[in-house]
């Protein structure tokens, strides 16, 4: 049986153009039995939301800003969340916001045994992220949305399929030119280029990823040193609610682990041959 979820959106801290991708993500975790969005709908800055509300049957909740500098919307969302909690009809909540003011709400919902899914931008404070069982960065949803549009475009125009190869060739040529670039004295330029800075950041991220995967492996491994990938995934989410393989350009955890040099992945088939499971081991 699927989880019954209440989706509560802070309109002041959410983007209207991502609502389709966001609701598609919610479906992975359960059924959105309630969909409400909170804001002052007399303000022009929420105009982009109005068409989306009709298309997706999202109920707008009006909250006037009584005092300048105070966000009454947050209070309205929190009160409604507690009212929904006390109905005991829901298994979890989806809180769509990048605001740390909802940290205590997320904690309170979890204390009552409900699952909390957070949706927000990468600027979201760590306190709110850690208060959720699972946190999804909306930037990853935007990437998925762009990929779907690209796939549709490729189907309509087969000639577009050749574009990636052209891009790769151009990127390779650019890389070669950068290697040849030297300073006036004939020595390589001492100032790091943006590309080099990006590579350094990627290295730090990869080291962090190795540590995270390694810790999950150590916690879930059996006496032979092998660990089920599914169990590792559950451990990682408990440690890092915002962990998402899409942040590393991969759709699945197994695909991500296979890119790491320090780990080996093995596929095991059940006795009846109907199911397959992935196991991980240190090389």
Describe this structure in words.
The protein is α/β, with parallel strands linked by helices and 283 residues long. It is 46% helix and 19% strand. The chain contains 10 helices and 9 strands. It has helices at 19-27, 47-55, 72-87, 103-111, 126-131, 138-156, 163-180, 194-220, 229-239, 253-258; strands at 3-10, 30-39, 59-62, 92-96, 115-120, 134-137, 227-228, 263-269, 276-282. Strands 3-2-1-4-5-6 form a 6-stranded parallel β-sheet, sandwiched between helices. It is elongated, with a radius of gyration of 23 Å. Residues 158-184 and 188-204 have low confidence and may be disordered.
Summarize the structure.
The chain contains ten helices and nine strands.
- Strand portion, in percent? 15-25%
- Contiguous low-pLDDT stretches (5 residues minimum) are 158-184, 188-204
Q: How would you sum up the major sheet? A: 6 strands, parallel
E-strand count: 9
Give the H and E element order.
EHEHEHEHEHEHHHEHHEE
Q: Give the overall shape.
A: elongated
The H-level CATH homologous superfamily of the largest domain, spelled out, is 5'-nuclease
| Gap from first CA to last CA | 39 Å
Secondary-structure content class: alpha/beta
Which topology of the largest domain does CATH recognise?
Rossmann fold
The portion of residues assigned to helices is 40-55%
Q: Which CATH architecture of the largest domain? A: 3-Layer(aba) Sandwich
Strand order of the largest sheet: 3-2-1-4-5-6
If helices are DSSP runs of H or I spanning 4 or more residues, what is the number of helices?
A: 10
Number of domains: 2
CATH class of the largest domain: Alpha Beta
Average pLDDT level: 81
Compute the CA-based radius of gyration.
23 Å
């Amino acid at each position: 049986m699927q989880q019954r979820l209440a989706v509560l959106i802070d309109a002041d801290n959410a983007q209207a153009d991502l609502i389709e991708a966001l609701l598609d993500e919610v479906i992975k975790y359960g059924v959105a039995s309630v969909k409400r969005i909170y804001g002052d709908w007399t303000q022009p800055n929420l105009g982009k939301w109005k068409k989306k509300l009709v298309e997706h049957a999202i109920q707008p909740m009006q909250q006037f800003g009584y005092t300048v500098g105070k966000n009454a919307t947050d209070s309205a969302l929190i009160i409604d969340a507690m009212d929904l909690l006390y109905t005991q009809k829901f298994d979890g909540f989806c809180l769509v916001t990048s605001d740390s003011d909802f940290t205590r709400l997320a904690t309170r919902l979890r204390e009552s045994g409900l699952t909390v899914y957070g949706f927000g931008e990468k600027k979201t404070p760590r306190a709110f992220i850690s208060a959720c069982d699972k946190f999804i960065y909306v930037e990853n949803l935007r990437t998925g949305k762009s990929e779907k549009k690209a796939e549709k475009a490729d189907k309509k125009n087969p000639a577009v399929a050749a574009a990636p190869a052209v891009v790769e060739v151009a990127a390779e040529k650019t890389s070669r030119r950068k290697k040849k670039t030297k300073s006036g004295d004939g020595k390589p330029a001492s100032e790091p280029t943006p590309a080099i800075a990006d590579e350094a950041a990627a290295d730090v991220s990869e080291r962090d990823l190795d540590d995270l995967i390694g810790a999950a492996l150590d916690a879930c491994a059996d006496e032979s040193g092998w660990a089920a990938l599914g169990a590792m995934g559950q451990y990682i989410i408990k440690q890092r609610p915002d962990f998402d393989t899409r942040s590393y350009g991969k759709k699945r955890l197994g695909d991500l682990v296979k890119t790491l040099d320090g780990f080996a992945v093995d596929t095991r088939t059940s006795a009846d041959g109907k199911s397959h499971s992935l196991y991980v081991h240190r090389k």
